[in-house]
Amino acid sequence: MKPPDETTTSEEENPRDEESLREPGGTVNGDSIRDTVLCGDARQLLQTLPSAAVQTIVTSPPYYGQRDYEHESQVGREAEPQQYIDNLVAIFAEARRVLRPDGTLWLNLGDKYHRSHLLGLPWRVALALAESGWMLRADIIWHKPNAMPQPVKNRPTTDHEYLFLFSLQTDYYYDADAIREPHVTFGEGSKMRGGRRHLGQRGGTPEQGKNGGRANLHDGRWDQAFHPLGRNKRTVWSVSLGKFRQAHFAVFPPSLIRPCILAGSPPGGLVLDPFFGAGTVGVVARELERHYVGLELNPSYLELARQRLREAGCP
Ligand SMILES: C[S@@+](CC[C@H](N)C(=O)[O-])C[C@H]1O[C@@H](n2cnc3c(N)ncnc32)[C@H](O)[C@@H]1O
User: Fold this and answer.
1) Any idea what the CATH number is for the domain that residue 121 is in?
2) N or C: which end of the chain has fewer CB within 10 A?
3) Which residue has a Cα nearest atom 18 of ligand 1?
4) 165 and 207 both lie in a single domain
């Protein structure tokens, strides 16, 4: 595997040592593109963006062979799956330069059957990105409780997609506290004796009951079981599909991407979506007091995004 972060941009163009980069979310490099949308092919537009400018990328490229976005440069209509993988690797190589060194990429992908064979494309793309220098940090299963029924009788109905988390280096911005989830074992509703009383009190682990006297609950496992903000976020996220019907393609449910933006960027940070579609990333970024930059090939989708952003009171 190649080492991450091997950009060839000159120091002048890519001032990675600048003051702006010391603080998470520093946006000096991104000031000129804050809260803007650009129309065109992500591959080309990314080359025009400043280096090390965005804190996190949250995006969902077209799935392979799924929809026609009516443009010759569109991703997803390649003749062979390998061309699709190669195209995405090339686009995200350019996106890597635009990302701050402590930034992250949250990439949503769904799979596809071809002549009864499941192609395994999300993982093939993820492994190709890892080969190209990205660090694969997590594979999150997006479980869709209201997924469309499928007319299949010889295999289970698919009700999940993937959300991959990548970074460029081992030390990256990730606010775990911003996305903790409720404890299960020792939550308010728990029937387990000895746990509830101690919730949120460091060192206040159960002295009686099932876990009485367990030293390991006093250190590392305290965080798991008793952290006042909840346990660390898990990798299966159950999020229903949204109801936004104006777009002819799948848009992100806001609840799916809120954790990505909250953990991936501090308030004021810049969030990029190179496949902006109807602009959900922009709307949610502003709702969470982050900034956005969106790239989109199809002008009519971009107009839809602009309208949604205006309606949400976004700049
Ligand atoms: C699945 S949709 C994204 C939807 C978006 N996440 C939302 O919530 O609205 C994928 C988008 O990528 C756009 N697209 C396809 N190829 C592109 C390319 N080469 N450059 C930029 N956008 C592209 C499509 O037009 C489509 O709007």
Assistant:
1) 3.40.50.150
2) N
3) 41
4) no
